[in-house]
Amino acid sequence: MRTLPTLAPMLLAALLLSACGKGDSGASKPAAPTVPVTVLAVAPRDWADTLEALGTAQANESVTLTAKITETVRKLGFADGQVVEAGDVLVELTSGQQVAQLEEAQAVLKDAERQYRRQQDLLGQGTVSKALFDTAETTRDSSRARVEAIRAQLADRIVSAPFGGVLGLRKVSPGTLVTPGTPIVTLDDIHVIKLDFAVPETALAALKPGLAVQATSPAFPDRRFAGKVESIDSRVDPATRAVTVRALIPNQDASLRPGMLLTVEVRARERMALAVPELALVPNGNRQFVYRLDDQDIAHLVEVRVGARRAGEVEIVAGLEPGTRVVVEGTVSLRDGAKVAVKTVTANAAPVARQG
Q1: Can you give the pTM of this predicted structure?
Q2: How far apart are CA 246 and CA 227, in angstroms?
Q3: Which of 175, 170, 172, 162 is nearest to 186 (CA)?
Q4: Given CB 3.0 to 4.6 Å as the disulfide criterion, which of 93, 174, 323, 353 pairs with 71?
Q5: C-alpha distances in angstroms, 200 versus 107, 111, 143, 238?
Q6: In angstroms, how far is CA 68 from the centroid of its own chain?
């Protein structure tokens, strides 16, 4: 019976140790929750620097037809908006006096040629002198020159189309007295449109003839007109530090008209590049970072160098390799080294399924 008090302290100590052990296991720290994210596997894709500018449409060829002399309009040979070919007669001015003079000059020339042939035959027979033959030859040549001069005067009384195109609205009527410089009608060749626009001089290195352009107009909001850069001005405007670029746009259906304001986009430096949505960027001062996922879906914050931007996307020049998975959505709640749960894989470039 004396041994019981000795065992009591030992039993009490054992119970205390057992209780402490249970308390330690119940207080173990829970695992950190994973962050749901949307990822994108970057891959090379078509990319180009896009230059945007405003330009004014011009006709491929354009002229305002006028008279060369002072005379009245006798006849109009066209209608407003008519399509004409090169050489078509558009306006005839009064020319009755010149027609009469031409008939007279032609009669004189006919007689002079007859006298010339007669003197030539007699000279061969030796019955006339060389001086008389020379006089007949001079008379013939002067008569011929007179006919050509009157024909030129008659030609000045005809206004014809110098090239094929579309006529505008006529400015004269039959009987109108016109003088040199009086506008008669406009003529535009619009099967091709010249589009002139200005770009900053900093873009000169990326510009060259042959680059593809696309133009849009408020008049046709659902259409994009494709063309190519034809030439670049040889001078930079010292006031604006801009250079004028000319593009040619096919216009077979005559939708575009000279004078229209067009918004033009030029695709320059076409290449294959890695790109990510702008949402994927994590800025820190002047530096840019993205969250890269490893095979265990652990996020790592890596620095990248960005290039050109376009509509919600940014080119990655350095810092990523093709096939790298990048977090696009969920970066706000993410920290370097955090475990993520891939919620969605975007199909923007080359999406891959979740690994691990």
Answers
A1: 0.60
A2: 10
A3: 170
A4: 93
A5: 68, 71, 63, 11
A6: 39
